[in-house]
Write a structure and sequence with these properties.
- The complex is a heterodimer of chains A (120) and B (107).
- Chain A is mostly beta strands and 120 residues long.
- In chain A, 3% of the residues lie in helices and 48% in strands.
- Chain A has 1 helix and 11 strands.
- In chain A, strands 2, 4, 5, 6, 9, 10 and 11 form a 7-stranded mixed beta sheet that branches. In chain A, strands 1-3-8-7 form a 4-stranded antiparallel beta sheet.
- Chain B has no helices and 10 strands.
- In chain B, strands 2, 4, 5, 6, 8, 9 and 10 form a 7-stranded mixed beta sheet that branches.
- The radius of gyration of chain B is 13 Å and the shape is globular.
- Chain B starts with a strand and ends with a strand.
- The chains are: A mainly beta (120), B mainly beta (107).
- The interface between A and B is medium-sized, with 22 and 25 residues.
Chain lengths: 120, 107
Protein backbone atom coordinates (compact mmCIF):
# COMPACT_ATOMS: atom_id res chain seq x y z
CA UNK A 1 0.00 0.00 0.00
CA UNK A 2 1.32 3.42 -0.98
CA UNK A 3 1.88 6.04 1.70
CA UNK A 4 2.48 9.74 1.21
CA UNK A 5 2.56 11.71 4.42
CA UNK A 6 2.88 15.46 4.15
CA UNK A 7 3.95 17.75 6.96
CA UNK A 8 1.41 19.84 8.79
CA UNK A 9 -0.05 23.26 8.11
CA UNK A 10 2.26 26.25 8.48
CA UNK A 11 1.65 29.90 9.33
CA UNK A 12 4.54 32.19 8.44
CA UNK A 13 5.31 35.87 8.06
CA UNK A 14 6.48 37.47 4.80
CA UNK A 15 10.20 37.13 4.38
CA UNK A 16 10.48 33.97 6.47
CA UNK A 17 11.86 30.71 5.14
CA UNK A 18 10.02 27.41 5.06
CA UNK A 19 10.66 23.78 4.22
CA UNK A 20 7.75 21.35 3.94
CA UNK A 21 8.06 17.62 3.53
CA UNK A 22 6.49 14.58 1.92
CA UNK A 23 7.42 11.15 3.26
CA UNK A 24 6.89 8.35 0.76
CA UNK A 25 6.81 4.57 1.12
CA UNK A 26 10.44 3.48 1.03
CA UNK A 27 9.94 0.69 -1.48
CA UNK A 28 8.84 3.10 -4.23
CA UNK A 29 10.82 6.24 -3.37
CA UNK A 30 13.77 5.58 -5.68
CA UNK A 31 11.58 4.30 -8.51
CA UNK A 32 9.31 7.27 -9.00
CA UNK A 33 9.22 10.99 -9.61
CA UNK A 34 8.00 13.10 -6.68
CA UNK A 35 6.24 16.24 -7.78
CA UNK A 36 4.85 19.33 -6.10
CA UNK A 37 1.61 20.96 -7.19
CA UNK A 38 0.32 24.30 -5.93
CA UNK A 39 -3.30 25.27 -5.52
CA UNK A 40 -3.98 28.88 -4.61
CA UNK A 41 -7.22 29.58 -2.71
CA UNK A 42 -10.18 28.95 -4.99
CA UNK A 43 -7.95 28.33 -7.99
CA UNK A 44 -6.71 25.46 -10.14
CA UNK A 45 -3.66 23.23 -10.09
CA UNK A 46 -0.15 24.37 -11.02
CA UNK A 47 2.85 22.12 -11.49
CA UNK A 48 5.83 23.46 -9.57
CA UNK A 49 8.40 20.80 -10.35
CA UNK A 50 9.53 17.29 -9.54
CA UNK A 51 12.52 15.26 -8.51
CA UNK A 52 13.72 11.73 -9.22
CA UNK A 53 15.16 10.75 -5.84
CA UNK A 54 17.31 7.94 -7.24
CA UNK A 55 19.67 10.43 -8.89
CA UNK A 56 18.26 13.80 -7.72
CA UNK A 57 17.37 14.84 -11.26
CA UNK A 58 15.15 17.89 -10.65
CA UNK A 59 12.94 19.88 -13.02
CA UNK A 60 11.04 23.08 -12.32
CA UNK A 61 8.09 24.80 -13.91
CA UNK A 62 9.11 28.17 -15.41
CA UNK A 63 7.05 30.14 -12.86
CA UNK A 64 8.81 28.45 -9.98
CA UNK A 65 12.41 28.21 -11.21
CA UNK A 66 14.54 30.20 -8.77
CA UNK A 67 11.60 30.73 -6.41
CA UNK A 68 11.63 27.37 -4.63
CA UNK A 69 13.98 24.44 -4.13
CA UNK A 70 12.96 20.81 -4.41
CA UNK A 71 15.14 18.19 -2.78
CA UNK A 72 15.03 14.63 -1.53
CA UNK A 73 16.68 12.53 1.17
CA UNK A 74 16.79 8.85 0.26
CA UNK A 75 17.77 7.82 3.79
CA UNK A 76 14.35 8.86 5.09
CA UNK A 77 12.36 8.50 1.84
CA UNK A 78 11.33 12.13 2.04
CA UNK A 79 11.03 14.90 -0.50
CA UNK A 80 11.07 18.58 0.38
CA UNK A 81 9.84 21.89 -0.96
CA UNK A 82 11.67 24.94 0.32
CA UNK A 83 11.28 28.71 0.17
CA UNK A 84 14.03 31.18 1.20
CA UNK A 85 11.73 34.17 1.51
CA UNK A 86 7.96 33.70 1.56
CA UNK A 87 5.49 36.21 0.19
CA UNK A 88 1.78 36.60 0.90
CA UNK A 89 1.12 35.36 -2.64
CA UNK A 90 2.59 31.97 -1.63
CA UNK A 91 -0.47 31.32 0.53
CA UNK A 92 -2.10 28.14 -0.68
CA UNK A 93 -2.26 24.37 -0.58
CA UNK A 94 0.79 22.41 -1.67
CA UNK A 95 0.39 18.82 -2.74
CA UNK A 96 3.09 16.26 -3.25
CA UNK A 97 2.26 13.66 -5.85
CA UNK A 98 4.00 10.65 -7.32
CA UNK A 99 4.58 9.46 -10.85
CA UNK A 100 5.05 5.72 -10.57
CA UNK A 101 3.99 4.58 -14.03
CA UNK A 102 6.85 4.51 -16.51
CA UNK A 103 6.38 6.40 -19.74
CA UNK A 104 3.93 8.92 -18.33
CA UNK A 105 4.04 12.09 -16.29
CA UNK A 106 0.60 11.53 -14.76
CA UNK A 107 0.46 11.83 -10.98
CA UNK A 108 -1.08 8.60 -9.74
CA UNK A 109 -0.70 9.08 -5.99
CA UNK A 110 -1.33 12.29 -4.06
CA UNK A 111 -0.69 13.46 -0.53
CA UNK A 112 -3.38 15.24 1.46
CA UNK A 113 -1.66 18.59 1.03
CA UNK A 114 0.11 21.09 3.25
CA UNK A 115 -1.65 24.41 3.80
CA UNK A 116 0.78 27.31 3.87
CA UNK A 117 -0.46 30.67 5.14
CA UNK A 118 1.77 33.72 4.81
CA UNK A 119 0.50 36.74 6.66
CA UNK A 120 1.94 39.61 8.61
CA UNK B 1 4.33 26.21 -22.70
CA UNK B 2 1.24 24.29 -23.79
CA UNK B 3 -2.00 25.93 -22.65
CA UNK B 4 -4.99 23.72 -21.90
CA UNK B 5 -8.45 25.24 -22.15
CA UNK B 6 -11.31 23.35 -20.54
CA UNK B 7 -14.98 23.80 -21.31
CA UNK B 8 -17.57 24.32 -20.15
CA UNK B 9 -16.67 26.08 -16.95
CA UNK B 10 -19.60 24.51 -15.15
CA UNK B 11 -21.82 21.59 -16.12
CA UNK B 12 -25.13 21.00 -14.31
CA UNK B 13 -26.69 17.62 -14.94
CA UNK B 14 -29.05 15.12 -13.36
CA UNK B 15 -28.27 11.66 -11.94
CA UNK B 16 -28.10 9.02 -14.65
CA UNK B 17 -27.16 11.47 -17.40
CA UNK B 18 -23.91 11.60 -19.38
CA UNK B 19 -21.28 14.32 -18.94
CA UNK B 20 -18.94 15.34 -21.73
CA UNK B 21 -15.99 17.52 -20.72
CA UNK B 22 -13.65 19.11 -23.23
CA UNK B 23 -9.94 19.91 -23.01
CA UNK B 24 -8.30 21.77 -25.88
CA UNK B 25 -4.53 22.11 -26.19
CA UNK B 26 -2.70 25.05 -27.76
CA UNK B 27 -0.34 22.60 -29.50
CA UNK B 28 -0.82 19.08 -30.76
CA UNK B 29 -0.31 16.29 -28.25
CA UNK B 30 -0.01 12.56 -28.61
CA UNK B 31 -3.05 10.74 -27.26
CA UNK B 32 -0.72 9.20 -24.68
CA UNK B 33 0.24 12.53 -23.17
CA UNK B 34 -2.93 13.64 -21.41
CA UNK B 35 -4.43 12.82 -18.01
CA UNK B 36 -7.66 13.65 -16.22
CA UNK B 37 -8.15 14.22 -12.50
CA UNK B 38 -11.13 14.59 -10.21
CA UNK B 39 -11.01 16.88 -7.19
CA UNK B 40 -13.78 17.01 -4.62
CA UNK B 41 -14.02 19.89 -2.14
CA UNK B 42 -11.41 19.66 0.60
CA UNK B 43 -9.69 16.69 -1.02
CA UNK B 44 -6.57 16.08 -3.05
CA UNK B 45 -6.97 15.41 -6.76
CA UNK B 46 -7.39 11.81 -7.87
CA UNK B 47 -6.09 10.39 -11.14
CA UNK B 48 -8.93 9.20 -13.35
CA UNK B 49 -7.45 8.60 -16.80
CA UNK B 50 -3.99 8.69 -18.34
CA UNK B 51 -2.31 7.63 -21.53
CA UNK B 52 -4.57 6.13 -24.17
CA UNK B 53 -7.60 5.98 -21.93
CA UNK B 54 -6.09 3.91 -19.12
CA UNK B 55 -8.09 4.26 -15.93
CA UNK B 56 -6.40 4.91 -12.60
CA UNK B 57 -6.58 2.45 -9.73
CA UNK B 58 -10.16 1.79 -8.67
CA UNK B 59 -11.72 4.10 -11.26
CA UNK B 60 -15.01 2.67 -12.57
CA UNK B 61 -15.58 2.17 -16.28
CA UNK B 62 -18.19 4.93 -16.25
CA UNK B 63 -15.19 7.21 -16.76
CA UNK B 64 -13.52 7.21 -20.16
CA UNK B 65 -11.09 9.42 -22.05
CA UNK B 66 -10.60 9.97 -25.75
CA UNK B 67 -9.06 12.34 -28.23
CA UNK B 68 -5.86 13.22 -29.99
CA UNK B 69 -4.09 16.22 -31.47
CA UNK B 70 -5.53 19.24 -29.73
CA UNK B 71 -8.99 18.02 -28.68
CA UNK B 72 -9.59 15.65 -25.80
CA UNK B 73 -12.75 14.53 -24.02
CA UNK B 74 -13.60 13.03 -20.66
CA UNK B 75 -16.93 11.22 -20.66
CA UNK B 76 -18.76 10.21 -17.50
CA UNK B 77 -21.79 7.98 -18.01
CA UNK B 78 -24.62 7.20 -15.56
CA UNK B 79 -23.83 10.22 -13.42
CA UNK B 80 -24.02 9.75 -9.66
CA UNK B 81 -24.21 12.56 -7.09
CA UNK B 82 -20.78 11.36 -5.90
CA UNK B 83 -19.37 12.57 -9.24
CA UNK B 84 -19.90 16.20 -8.22
CA UNK B 85 -16.39 17.64 -8.38
CA UNK B 86 -13.99 19.75 -10.39
CA UNK B 87 -12.27 17.90 -13.22
CA UNK B 88 -8.84 18.89 -14.54
CA UNK B 89 -6.91 17.81 -17.58
CA UNK B 90 -3.12 17.77 -17.56
CA UNK B 91 -0.66 17.38 -20.40
CA UNK B 92 2.79 15.89 -20.22
CA UNK B 93 3.72 16.08 -23.88
CA UNK B 94 6.26 18.80 -23.22
CA UNK B 95 8.94 19.23 -20.59
CA UNK B 96 6.71 21.80 -18.86
CA UNK B 97 3.66 20.10 -17.39
CA UNK B 98 0.46 22.13 -17.43
CA UNK B 99 -3.09 21.75 -16.14
CA UNK B 100 -6.32 23.07 -17.57
CA UNK B 101 -8.42 25.51 -15.56
CA UNK B 102 -10.98 22.88 -14.61
CA UNK B 103 -14.64 22.08 -15.23
CA UNK B 104 -17.02 21.99 -12.29
CA UNK B 105 -19.64 19.26 -12.55
CA UNK B 106 -22.77 19.69 -10.46
CA UNK B 107 -25.17 16.79 -10.12
Amino acid sequence: EMHLVQSGAEVKKPGESLKISCQVSAYIFTNCWVGWVRQLPGKGLEWMGFIYPADSDTRYGPSFQGQVTISADKSVSTAYLQWRSLQASDTGMYYCALITVGGTRAFDYWGRGTLVTVSS
Amino acid sequence: EIVLTQSPGTLSLSPGERATLSCRASQSLRSDDLAWYQQKPGQAPRLLIYGRGTRGTGIPDRFSGSGSGTDFTLTITRLDPEDSAVYYCQQYGSSVLTFGGGTKVEI
